[in-house]
Design a protein that fits this description.
Radius of gyration: 23 Å
Strand content: 5-15%
Number of strands: 12
Strand order of the largest sheet: 2-8-7-6-5-3-4
CATH class of the largest domain: Alpha Beta
CATH topology of the largest domain: Aspartate Aminotransferase, domain 2
Helix content: 40-55%
CATH architecture of the largest domain: 3-Layer(aba) Sandwich
Number of domains: 2
CATH superfamily of the largest domain: Type I PLP-dependent aspartate aminotransferase-like (Major domain)
Order of helices and strands: HHHEHHEHEHEHEHEHEEHHHEHEEEH
Amino acid sequence: MRKARVRHRLSPLALRAYLKLKKKVIAMGIVADRLSVIKPSATVALNSKAMEMKAAGEDVIGLAAGEPDFPTPDSAVQAGVNAILTGDTKYTAPDGRPELKQAVARKFKRENGLDYEPNQVTIGNGGKHVLYNALMATVNPGEEVIIPAPYWTSYPDMVRLAEGEPVIVPCLQENRFKMTAKQLEAAITPKTKWLIFNTPSNPTGAAYTADEIKPLTDVLLKHPHVLVMTDDMYEHITYDGFKPVTIAQVEPKLYDRTLTTNGVSKAYAMTGWRIGYAAGPKVIIDAIRTIQSQSTTNPSSISQTAAVAALDGPQDFIKERALAFQGRRDLIVSMLNQAPGLDCLTPEGAFYVYPSCQGTLGKTTPEGKLIESDEDFAAYLLETEKVVVVPGSAFGLSPHFRISYATSDEVLEEAGRRIQRAAAALR
């Protein structure tokens, strides 16, 4: 009774605050402590916001999602349909069926000059899942993982979930967002477990040549305790004749220390099919299998069959789509560089640009709001022009923002006009 009387005396505002605090305290007892060190994916959150705004009838342009707007290849679609019709809908081996592992091994031999046996290959529920499994299977509490920034938003939080320590290496626009050998050397300690290496990059589109990778591999050779996790998801989306390479290809001596990861999501426009893969040391592959057997059991049997068809089927369309992406890249880079206060490099690959908005900081919106950060600028674009971009803070390097140009020329042109208009209105 006494507690009820005290609560009744609270003002409505105080009562709401009390209930909010009570709810938080209760949640703290339910939700695991490890969640306190991570946050939801910014890209996923903003893409969801864009879809909600569209559903509400708002004229919003979402440039947050890293998803090709092309269809899945017919060969993969038909293979998936046939799998359903023929009853290929049962459990498979935890980390993928032999046919897909063999197709992945053929892919690595054909395109990267790397020889792997099927027992050195793992199949996961998307590239993100493969990376997560690898970190969970190998990282001990307190071990360090080197992550060049700007980075894909999930890398640091996946490391934290594995109880590791992300070591962020800032790679500035002046060096085209690429890590130097000197930076890598300085970041390595006795606690270093992995280097995560993403080329072409999400979010910048920066891609390393073999000559740029070699100094990094020279450093790695001096530190035999450091493993290398490549993220080659955008390998096939490069421009102007750029020749993509992966680390074990550049330096064969690192073969036994490298987990080479990839997937069918981007090159084959199969994001929703959720098939990623990796090849590397058998001890790591076996550890990943153990993790996966206790989490998802196995990737979708239907998606695995479709992925075999994608990897072994016609590949000509990949170059055609890369040319289309190149045209879109050139369009949005040109329009961004015509916007006051923005500065955008021309990337070598992927389907993202990462313009600097340094020139907008310190300016004021027509409504009188001061732009102090890339988060402010991104919010301003959303509020005034209904354009959704991802602030650079989500990728570990500000003041920038990321645009995905995996959409039509018409949409990009309209988005470019809106961004130019918003930038010109700042004072």
